[in-house]
TrEMBL record:
<keyword id="KW-0472">Membrane</keyword>
<keyword id="KW-1133">Transmembrane helix</keyword>
<feature type="transmembrane region" description="Helical">
    <location>
        <begin position="223"/>
        <end position="244"/>
    </location>
</feature>
<feature type="transmembrane region" description="Helical">
    <location>
        <begin position="133"/>
        <end position="154"/>
    </location>
</feature>
<dbReference type="InterPro" id="IPR007271">
    <property type="entry name" value="Nuc_sug_transpt"/>
</dbReference>
<dbReference type="Pfam" id="PF04142">
    <property type="entry name" value="Nuc_sug_transp"/>
</dbReference>
<feature type="transmembrane region" description="Helical">
    <location>
        <begin position="161"/>
        <end position="179"/>
    </location>
</feature>
<feature type="transmembrane region" description="Helical">
    <location>
        <begin position="264"/>
        <end position="281"/>
    </location>
</feature>
<dbReference type="GO" id="GO:0015165">
    <property type="term" value="F:pyrimidine nucleotide-sugar transmembrane transporter activity"/>
</dbReference>
<protein>
    <recommendedName>
        <fullName>Sugar phosphate transporter domain-containing protein</fullName>
    </recommendedName>
</protein>
<feature type="transmembrane region" description="Helical">
    <location>
        <begin position="29"/>
        <end position="46"/>
    </location>
</feature>
<feature type="transmembrane region" description="Helical">
    <location>
        <begin position="288"/>
        <end position="308"/>
    </location>
</feature>
<feature type="transmembrane region" description="Helical">
    <location>
        <begin position="66"/>
        <end position="88"/>
    </location>
</feature>
<keyword id="KW-0812">Transmembrane</keyword>
<dbReference type="GO" id="GO:0000139">
    <property type="term" value="C:Golgi membrane"/>
</dbReference>
<dbReference type="InterPro" id="IPR037185">
    <property type="entry name" value="EmrE-like"/>
</dbReference>
<feature type="transmembrane region" description="Helical">
    <location>
        <begin position="314"/>
        <end position="331"/>
    </location>
</feature>
Length: 348
């Protein structure tokens, strides 16, 4: 379940991948459709659930750090259950290889745990300033941050087409920031939301790069066990932060202080997001995840229009097109390579 590093670094495209329907793989195709549909639904639901939990002034009744801890704990339980099945199905003589990680080696997961904690908290802070329709548009700036950070930290080069795609992606995000004639609703600030989500993408991408390096050094270990270690450190880090920031309230009111039905919906949505990613990366591929992101961007926009009084302007529609096209351009060659598409046969 390489969702930690794949969330920011994996290929994105608007082309629907998948196996051809035949009698031999009809069952696998059904599984493919079910997982893809669930991924699209959950990813569309994520910003809508967070937006539905906001107060009119953009704040939340629940503690953001507490929410991060509970989400991490939920994913830890899931990974622990999956790892137990993996452990039991492994040859007893090789089981120790699945979890042969010393304490000193495990400390390498502390840095990404801190960065992921910051990233997950910034999601809630950023969403307090923007509409869910803008969440995916601004969130796609992770491609920009990933491209730059991978170039700086790992020397990974981008083609001229990819750099052009990054410029278009930036333009698409800037297009939907407030204009002079805009009248933002109470508590909304699109520009501030964009800045916060860019910081979120920087933290998330940096942690993904660091996690990727750790995973490559410990490839013989179970990915589920490594995720358990990462989640444990994440819980510890956020508990320490909670102790220094809001310990009196939590100790007096309890960890579920301020939680209402909408808060538990956010918890379910965030946890389901992590679980759905694990199934995507296990049974399908990373391009499917990106395809679900692209579709969910449009679905969230439609629901925001009907339920969150979002003004669907021509500028926003153009921004959706620009972001979608730039995403395709950035990962075009990877898609062609994966599906053996010749340039001469490509429409674009």
């Amino acid at each position: 379940m390489k969702k930690r590093m794949d969330d920011d670094t994996e290929e994105k495209t608007i082309i629907l991948p998948g196996p051809k329907i035949t009698k031999e793989n009809e069952v696998s195709f059904i599984k493919y459709c079910i997982i893809l549909s669930l991924a699209i639904g959950i990813k569309s639901w994520q910003p809508l659930a967070i937006a539905g939990s906001k107060r009119p002034d953009g704040t939340y009744s629940w503690n953001k750090t507490t929410m991060v801890i509970l989400v991490e704990f939920s994913k830890l339980v899931f990974c622990a259950i999956v790892f137990s099945f993996q452990y039991m199905s492994t040859d007893p003589r090789k089981r120790h290889l699945l979890h042969n990680l010393s304490f000193n080696q495990s400390l390498h997961f502390l840095i990404p745990a801190v960065l992921y904690g910051a990233s997950n908290t910034l999601v809630y802070i950023g969403m307090s300033y923007i509409n869910p329709a803008l969440f995916h548009v601004f969130g796609n700036t992770r491609i920009l941050t990933a491209g730059i950070l991978y170039r700086i930290m790992m020397g990974r080069k981008q083609s001229d087409l990819q750099w052009l795609a990054l410029l278009l992606l930036t333009a698409g995000a800037i297009m939907v920031t407030p204009l002079s004639e805009s009248t933002p609703k109470e508590g909304e600030d699109n520009f501030l939301g964009l800045i916060i989500l860019i910081l979120m993408c920087l933290c998330s991408t940096s942690s993904s790069i660091y996690t990727e390096i750790n995973y490559k050094k410990t490839q013989e270990l179970s990915i589920f066990y490594q995720n358990c270690v990462l989640y444990v450190y994440g819980i510890i880090v956020n508990l320490i932060w909670l102790l220094f920031t809001d310990s009196q309230t939590v100790s007096g009111q309890g960890i579920f202080y301020g939680f209402d039905r909408s808060a538990f919906i956010v918890l379910l949505a965030q946890s389901s997001m992590g679980v759905s990613l694990s199934f995507i990366f296990k049974y399908l591929d990373n391009i499917v995840y990106v395809f679900s992101l692209t579709i969910s961007m449009f679905i969230s926009a439609v629901f925001s229009y009907f339920f969150f009084e979002f003004e669907f302007t021509l500028i926003f529609a153009c921004a959706l097109v620009v972001v979608t096209v730039s995403t395709y351009m950035y990962y075009r060659n990877k898609v062609f390579e994966k599906y053996s598409i010749q340039d001469k046969d490509a429409f674009f």
